[in-house]
Design a protein that fits this description.
It is built from eight helices and nine strands. It is an alpha/beta fold. The strands form two sheets. A six-stranded mixed sheet has the order 5-6-7-3-8-9, sandwiched between helices. A hairpin with a 2-residue loop joins strand 8 and strand 9. The model has no long low-confidence stretch (mean pLDDT 91).
Length: 233
């Protein structure tokens, strides 16, 4: 089976800094891959490379021709427009007819519980509401591969639970593939099927979620073992 996404010997260099070093990652359709590691480990860079937002310095990135991607950022940029138009514009720019875009946008807002705020300015929403709006915009595009960069890190506990619930429902309903970065290891356990641990731009562990959290890693993946001890201790 051909991979939905493949990074082969990928390196990304900014000046003298190697943000990614010889990364090899392959994802099949339907997988849910969590990227974990300390700040500056390369998680956001890997996501941006996978989405085509960053060019690689070395190596190759391949995305299957039938894969439709969408990305949600940690702090989504809100346009100076209404909540409804924020979603409509995303669809229209992808080639959806204006009338159809309004219908799909309204459905997406209802899915995330923002239908009553459709005419409000997107910039007046709370942080949790803005993240739900960003998810609505991504969902409306009907992607089969979604990339998320720390989707709940800046939210209060209630908003985190709500966004995570929406993600879980989305995956269950559509079998969408996920690649997401997170510092919330509980969230990783709940949403991921596989965990990639990065350190200094290198992939030092790539394991099924159960093996990553429940089997001893001290001998096989010592860096990931120390990371888990620090996070959980």
């Amino acid at each position: 089976m051909s991979a939905a996404l493949s990074l082969s010997d990928v390196s990304v260099q900014f000046g003298t800094h190697l943000a990614l070093q010889d990364v090899n990652v392959s994802m099949q359709a339907g997988e849910r891959v969590a990227l974990v590691g300390a700040n500056g480990s390369g998680k956001s860079t890997l996501l941006r490379v996978a989405h085509g937002l960053l060019k690689v310095s070395r190596g190759q990135v391949s995305v299957a021709s039938e894969v439709n991607q969408a990305m949600v950022f940690q702090r989504p940029h809100m346009l100076r427009t209404s909540v409804l138009r924020f979603v409509v514009w995303g669809l229209w720019l992808q080639g959806t007819a204006w009338r159809d875009a309004h219908v799909r946008a309204a459905q997406a807002l209802e899915r995330v519980g923002l239908q009553d705020m459709a005419e409000r300015s997107a910039r007046t929403l709370s942080g949790g509401q803005q993240q739900r709006l960003a998810l609505a915009r991504a969902w409306a595009l009907r992607p089969d591969f979604v990339l998320l960069d720390e989707p709940t890190s800046s939210l209060d506990p209630h908003a985190k639970r709500e966004v995570e619930r929406l993600l879980a429902d989305w995956v269950a309903a559509s079998k969408v593939s996920l690649m997401f970065s997170s510092h919330n290891l509980g969230q990783v356990k709940r949403l991921a099927t596989r965990v990639i641990y990065l350190e200094a731009g290198r992939v030092l562990a790539d394991l099924p979620v159960d093996e990553f959290f429940n089997r001893p890693l001290g001998k096989t993946h010592p860096e990931a073992h120390l990371f888990l001890k620090g996070e959980l201790g």
